[in-house]
Specification:
Elements: H1 6-32, H2 41-60, E1 67-73, E2 80-85, E3 89-90, E4 97-101, H3 108-112, E5 120-124, E6 127-142, E7 145-154, H4 163-171, H5 188-194, E8 201-206, H6 212-226, E9 236-239, H7 243-249, H8 252-255, E10 262-264, H9 266-273, E11 279-280, H10 283-290, H11 305-309, H12 312-327, E12 335-338, E13 341-343, H13 345-355, H14 361-381, H15 386-405, H16 412-424, H17 440-451, E14 454-455, H18 460-471, E15 480-483, H19 491-498, E16 506-510, H20 526-529, E17 537-542, E18 544-545, H21 550-561, E19 571-572, E20 581-584, H22 590-603, E21 609-613, H23 616-628, E22 634-635, E23 647-651, E24 660-665, H24 677-687, E25 690-698
Parallel strand pairs: 2-4, 8-16, 8-17, 9-10, 9-15, 11-14, 15-16, 18-19, 20-25, 21-23, 21-24, 22-23, 24-25
Antiparallel strand pairs: 1-2, 1-6, 3-4, 5-6, 6-7, 12-13
Helix pairs in contact: 1-2, 5-6, 12-18, 13-14, 14-15, 16-18, 21-24
This protein binds adenosine-5'-triphosphate.
Adenosine-5'-triphosphate (ATP) binds near residues 171, 208, 212 and 514.
Length: about 700
Amino acid sequence: MEQTRQNPFEEELARLEETSGIIDAQLAKLRSTPRYFGQDLTEQALDVRREQQRHTLAVAVNEPYFGRLDFQETGRTEPQPLYIGKAGVENPKSNAPLVIDWRAPIASLFYSFTGGELTASYESPEGIIDGLVYLKRNLVIRKQMLQRVVDTYERGSDLLPVADEFLLYRLGENKDNRLRDIVSTIQAEQDQIIRAAKNTALVIQGVAGSGKTTVALHRLAFLLYQYRDNVKAENMIIFAPNSMFLDYISGVLPELGVGNIQQTTFADWALELLEQEVKLADPSATLRRWFAVGPKRPVLSDETPGRFKGSIGYLRMIEAWVEAYERTFVPQADFEPWEGRTLASQRIHEWFYVEYKHYPLLKRRERTVARIERWLGMELDKIGDPKRRKEQKKKAGQRLKTFLKGWPAPTPFALYKQMFEEAANGGASASGEQPLHIPSEVIAATEPIWKKKEVQPEDLAPLLLIRSKLAGVDGGMFDHVVVDEAQDFSPFQIALLSRQTKGGSFTILGDLAQGIHAYQGIWKWDEFLGLFDSGQSGYFQLERSYRSTMEIIRFANGVLSRSGETLPLAVPVFRSGDKVSVASVDPKDRDRIIVEEVRELTEGSASTVAVIGRTEEICAGLHKLLEASGIAATLIDARQREYRGGVSVLPAYLAKGLEFDAVLIADADDKNYEASALDAKLLYVACTRALHRLSLLYSGEPSPLLELDQE
Ligand SMILES: Nc1ncnc2c1ncn2[C@@H]1O[C@H](COP(=O)(O)OP(=O)(O)OP(=O)(O)O)[C@@H](O)[C@H]1O
């Protein structure tokens, strides 16, 4: 157990004892009160409130707070100590706040104040409040035991502020298989994003390890607190790159006391809305194609299928086509239930195009058909002779069936295919007005896959767009949408989501330097920013990297600067560790050395280790090698749904978003990692997964992206 000074520690011990006593007593009382299941509405409301309190106190009981700020508001005579915790707790006797929720306006001072004698201020619902900070203190409490007290600021003290000491202590810890909350050490630049106003589309460029994922999750918790009357957890959604990543981040929101937020991938979400009408083609083929080693790799352009189908141009093309399709959707023929009686097509058109024009296509069709049936019913009623009526009814039923055969209700995939085929066959649209053009590269990559009723990821947003035209938007409107690893999203996807999001409330985060899926993602943030009104969007940059040691960040920046592109480089926090090791190995010793290194790491201090290979095949070989040497390891491929921690073997392109205490990059030679932008980004991703230790091995010539002689 460590402490900076004796007195503060004793002072905090006494305070903790008092607070814990109050929370324990409150919780015991609540737990002994039975749940109410009766019909009385007042009692029901009280029961809900008690449940919420039970939940809040259960979060607070073990670690009631992590920070203290002594603040003297202007006009007051003395500073008030404010204790900041994950959940707000009141003293039931005085109703005074015992612990302040980290999301409360006043708690923002704890994060934004970084020292100095000047006036500090925060924004409260009543306006700006200012005053002086006298003390800022970090506390570590585990299971109601005070473990550490660190003062990062004391007014008038000649001690130098140690603002980063507590952060560095936190960053130096090992990580297990879950991302954790950072409420006690949120940095000022992160806090600004977390607390940004709701109805804004925030686009955040953050370097590797700058806390993007973590910040996004904390922002959701903040929005739920700050806008509790307007937003609901069930109406918030997080899009992440894959199921394994979702598993990895799944602990943070519950740690913050937040539940029920949908966490999904765009593909899973889309396939569900499409009611599994299509299947996704196996992603490994695409990954193998784009991450092939050497000259086999395809050339990237705006006509690359993923880029083309993700563009706003394609979205407009589809919309124009559907509009034209809509104009010819209703049959031109009159409906004649029997000789001598006709329902003019003009009337049918009027119902469809005028009366029901606010409904989506299929709903309009449904209503119009119901209207025809009603008309038919009335016409039949006019026939006095029951026998004749019966005959005419039978005949009319059959004729209606035939009439509707000429008016089919298409599925999203059927309509999408129809559009695509028309465009592929020369560009005439449904109405013949809108010339369409689909590049031959896109046609060649599409047709063989669709034949199997499979689609590529870039077809999902177009399918959803068509579905919304046919059946409307369902699944409700979102209160807020988070898109993580957004550099891999397309403008089409974001535009589609924005139509389903109230107030354009988005948090879009990513890193262009990690844009390894550039065949489907964006190349610059303007591609997204251009989708929103400038007054409704904001752009932030996070430059400091918290994950890795200084040595690792400097090394990774070196790789990136040899990419041939100008990409945002990371600024490390001042956390020093081992030198990055780059070693040449004789091919015949490669396997033995890899096994020895992994063994040394697992027997040492690393809880999580990644062995990163260039391709899935290489990884399969590495995995076999480790298992044969008695080292338990998980081989991660594109289908992996769970992140288990321990030793993982994986290709760099699947490592995105994850982190490991130690990373070993095998085969970092000039064949696997050429002096190209894609290889530089891949290697950068691989290097920046390491928290504490990074080593690279190569045989033959080293990759030209590596710096061999670091000081
Ligand atoms: N303020 C902070 N205090 C403590 N730890 C932090 C802070 N900010 C980030 N971290 C830690 O840094 C690591 C990286 O965070 P996170 O994964 O959210 O970053 P990222 O920007 O999404 O990274 P990447 O783009 O490389 O996947 C995590 O271990 C996180 O807990």
